[in-house]
Design goal:
alpha+beta
Length: about 350
């Protein structure tokens, strides 16, 4: 139908422009963040582009619903301001029919978001963690900057040096975290040993002439040493380290851990978020001829900010156990649906 094709054309272009703008902004800030952390996270130059790509894939599960929302608000808003939708509705076209027509775009987009959130997201997190762990496990003393703290061994160890003399680290500070508590270690110097078969294929930091504090419930004590060896996870092992964000979606089903429940519901809910935000944009796009575009967009941005923060709050409540698996984070989508129903009950014109 000509009217449906025109609606698609009028909204697809602003959706594409919104997505391009959001991607450009994300890439700019993500790249700046990666470059800023490259030294402290010991990231290699070759891993930065791959990490940026993986972070972008993860972000698309939120960027696509956002682009749908802003693109539809902008596209339909232009049609309202130019009186095109006034003509549509005068011929018997309805706002509900506009929503059904745009659903032909929203449903495929929601399916894409589902694929990204349920399948691409855990794989991207796993690969990004593996890249970070591999870069950290392959660091050399010459690359260390005195006074900077470096997370190592999947962030279970923090290293800082007062200086570097060739392959020797001087005035070494190390903090480690484990099941038996944490240790704070100081050493006059330290060396990074090669891969060792007797260490299970792991790399070893050997510290010389120092003291350490073991901190734990009722076990705080200090001891001195002449030589102390600390193991670093090998890249092959570090790539297997998973947290809930890197777990396959199927592995999260049946879990009663609140954080895993929140992670699962977040993944499952994103396609519905994309669909509801897109439909909600239809009544929010209403405007009168010659109304300021920026005023309308400002209102849309404020509404989006409120919705986004409510989604984060809902996820946080489930993670912390404030709300159980039911209603979980689904109350947020119920609120969006209620807003959609109330706005659609109002006449589009008048």
């Amino acid at each position: 139908m000509i009217a449906a094709r025109y609606l698609h054309h009028s909204t697809l272009k602003p959706i594409a422009l919104s997505l391009a703008l959001l991607l450009a902004l994300f890439l700019f800030f993500a790249a700046a963040d990666l470059l800023n952390d490259a030294v402290s996270r010991l990231l290699s130059a070759t891993s930065l582009p791959r990490l940026l790509l993986l972070q972008t894939l993860i972000a698309c599960e939120v960027l696509i619903p956002s682009a749908l929302y802003f693109g539809i608000v902008d596209g339909l808003g232009r049609m309202y301001r130019s009186s095109e939708l006034v003509v549509f509705y005068a011929t018997g076209w309805s706002e509900a029919r506009t929503s059904l027509t745009l659903a032909q775009v929203l449903i495929p987009a929601a399916i894409l978001v589902a694929v990204l959130s349920m399948f691409v997201r855990p794989i991207a997190y796993e690969l990004s963690y593996a890249l970070e762990a591999e870069s950290a496990a392959r660091f050399e003393p010459e690359s260390l900057v005195p006074g900077r703290f470096y997370p190592l061994a999947d962030e279970e160890m923090t290293l800082s040096v007062g200086g570097v003399d060739g392959e020797v680290m001087l005035d070494v500070f190390v903090q480690t975290e484990g099941e038996d508590g944490s240790r704070v270690i100081r050493a006059r110097e330290g060396r990074l040993l090669d891969w060792r078969a007797d260490a299970g294929g792991e790399r070893v930091i050997e510290l010389t002439d120092g003291y350490a504090y073991r901190l734990g419930a009722g076990t705080d004590h200090e001891y001195t040493y002449e030589r102390l060896q600390l193991k670093l996870a090998a890249p092959s092992q570090a790539s297997e380290v998973r947290n809930r964000r890197a777990q396959p979606t199927a592995a999260l089903f049946g879990s009663d851990n609140p954080k895993e429940v929140a992670e699962l519901q977040w993944r499952l809910s994103l396609p519905f978020t994309a669909l509801l935000l897109g439909l909600l944009a239809v009544p929010l796009a209403r405007s009168v001829p010659r109304q300021s575009r920026f005023r309308q967009m400002l209102f849309a941005i404020l509404a989006y900010a409120v919705a986004f923060n409510l989604a984060i709050i809902a996820k946080g409540w489930v993670e912390s156990g404030v709300i159980g698996a039911l209603p979980g984070i689904w109350w947020f989508h119920g609120l969006l649906l209620l807003m959609l129903v109330l706005l659609m009950r109002r006449p589009a014109l008048g």
